[in-house]
Amino acid sequence: MSIKLEVWGDYALFTRPEMKVERVSYDVMTPSAARGLIEAIYWHPGMRWHIDRIHVCTPIHFTNLRRNEIKSKIIARTVNTVMERGKGELYLSTSEDIQQRAALLLRDVRYVIEAHFEMTKQAAPGDNPGKFQDIVKRRIQRGQFYHQPCFGCREFPAQFRLCEGVPPCPEELRGERDLGWMLYDMDYTDLENSTPLFFRGVLRDGVLEVPPWDSEEVRR
Q1: Dihedral angle sign, alpha carbons of residues 141, 211, 131, 34
Q2: Within a domain: 76
Q3: Res 133: pLDDT
Q4: Is the pLDDT of residue 34 over 80?
Q5: Does 218 map to a domain?
Q6: pLDDT, mean of residues 147-175
Q7: CATH code of the domain in which 112 resides
Q8: What is the DSSP string of 141-156?
Q9: pTM score
Q10: Structural domain containing residue 113
Q11: pLDDT class for 184, splitting at 50, 70, 90?
C-alpha cells in the first residue's frame, strides 16, 4: 500500500553527520527525515514505512541562521549513577551552557514524498493493509498527527496534504545533479549499537530515487 504526500514549510535542516560543530543541511530531504515525518502523522507497530522517491518541487535555496543552543546534555549513564547513589544533579543551567551556533538551512521547501508500508510481525490478527491505508488517508485529510511533523528539527514545522498526480519539476532542477553520499536511515537491529546507512543520492529532473532497504546501493 502506498501514499503520495505533499509537504512544505519555511525552513528545513537535514543535518550532515560529518559536520560536528556548525550544522549544515543536505541539499534535499533525506529518506530518514521523510520516514520520520510520515510516522509523525501515523505510526503503528504492525506496519513499517519505506520511502520510494522524493520529488523536489521548489528550487534549492540556502540561508544562514544563528541560534542559541545548549552545549551540554544529560546522558543515560549519569542518570543511572544518580539514581543508584541517591544524590547528584540532573539539570542543565542554560545560563552556563548556552552558546551560539551557526546553521546553514534550506528555505522555502516543498516536496512530494512517495512511500509505501509493509506489515510486520507485530500486527494484530485484525490488522490488514486496507485498514491502515484508510486510517492514514483519513488522518492526512483531517490534518491529524501524533506530534507536529517537521523538517529535520522540531522548530521547523511541516504542513502536509495528500497529493494527486506528478508534481512539475522546476526549471532549475532539470537534468542530473550528484548529491554525494546521503544518510539513508539508521539500522536498529542491534539496539545497543545503531548503525547509520548511506546511499549515493542523484537528483534527476527534481526526483530523488530511494533504493530499497536491502539494495546493494545502501552501504552499511
Answers
A1: negative
A2: no
A3: 92
A4: yes
A5: no
A6: 93
A7: 3.30.70.2660
A8: HHT--SS--EESEEEE
A9: 0.87
A10: 2-65+102-209
A11: very high
